[in-house]
Amino acid sequence: MQSGQSRVRLKLIFMLFILSSIAFLDRTNISVAGVQMREEYGLDQVHLGWVFSAFLVGYAAFQVPAGWLAGRIGPRRVLAMGVVWWGVFTALTALVSPMLGAVLPQLVLVRFLLGAGEAVVYPAGNQFVSQWIPAQERGKANGWIFAGVGMGAGLTPPLVTAIILWGGWRASFFVCALLGVAAGGIWYLAARDRPEDHPGMSSAELAHIRAGLPASGAGRHVATPWGLILSNRNVWALFTSYFAFGYVVWLFFSWFFIYLAEARHVDLKSSALYSMLPFIAMTVCCLAGGMVNDAVARRHGLFWGRCGIAVVAFILTAAFLVAGAAATDTTVAVLILAGGAGATYLAQSSFWSVTADFAAPHTGVVSGFMNMGCQIGGAITASLTPWIAAQFGWTAAFGTAAGFATVGAVAWLFVDPAKPLIRPGGMHSGAMSAPAGA
């Protein structure tokens, strides 16, 4: 972002980074607390997988409504309301009790509703990006926002472990809930839906933003062209690739801590430290991917900047997953698998930048639909991974994820970031022409 012209944008993108971090803290804390929850409630891994999947089903189901709502009433209010909602249901996770009936249905319901609340965070955030961030800076902006995923998930094992050792597993959910509600209030006070509405916006910064936005991105409250969206090749290619992305990354979010504890026989404190490595790699690679994304796009065009980087990222991911799962030494395996997690996040900025590139005023809905694919993939891996591991071993579980990563790479070859969903003058892009640079 241009120095001297980015003060307000930098602050708000940093706040989205914080919200993203807390969102993943609130959704992955159960992966660490799950060890104690299983013992207390008598749940096996398969039933705990159902609880993990319940979050993702709720999250997936409300992606498109969240994106539509962000486009209608603005990302400021939608994000603030969503953070309060998910804070409440994070706290309610700790209040599940056998005295209220069967524990499993309670956990499934609470986690489903938590997922519904968290569904707003990235569609609303991307709606914000489409209105605030010039096209040439979206790679870096999304790199920062999604670096919060790695940061939040990376902080989860040591933070939640420390809270559990101090006050028990329930205390970890209460602390996470308070952090979320506080961050949501700060966001609401500081953010605005449009740059021109922000009291701290300078005329120079506003001019820079407007100069970098496509003309079609200026519209507000435009009727959603559902037919065009659901027949657009870019949309379905991104949905497919993000499904693969979700399958891979939720293996780490849901099962990596338990994999280390139960398959590699690592103790609780060591597991917490080892579990940080994939998420540190995600954070670093997400930031690096965003910067490389913008740099390559400026020099070689959007196809190579957005799509080329993503293809390479998915191929690297598949290779790392296969090699890491086969390693016999625990430290070597963790380092290689962490490399696979990081490689996946080289592509993260591409997904969210390209939807803002071609969907313009419908960014919230399109990115929500794309993200629904990610969460469906995550819900499947959350329940399927323990079954594959039990039947065929963890090497097969990681190998399955590598296969999906390969599918994700191929899908990116069908994306054309330069073809707008709606061309200036109201024309819509066709579904059959070849992507530029392919």
UniProtKB/TrEMBL annotation:
Main location group: membrane
Topology class, membrane: Multi-pass membrane protein
Keywords: Membrane, Transmembrane, Transmembrane helix
Pfam family membership, one: MFS_1
Keyword flag Membrane: yes
PROSITE patterns in the cross-refs: MFS
Transmembrane spans: 12-30, 50-71, 78-97, 143-166, 172-191, 235-260, 272-291, 303-326, 332-354, 366-388, 394-415
Protein source organism: Sphingomonas quercus
Subcellular location: Membrane
Name recorded for this polypeptide: MFS transporter
Signal peptide bounds: none
Domain Major facilitator superfamily (MFS) profile per the UniProt entry, residue ranges: 12-420
PANTHER family (alphabetical): FI19708P1-RELATED, SOLUTE CARRIER FAMILY 17
Keyword Transmembrane helix: yes
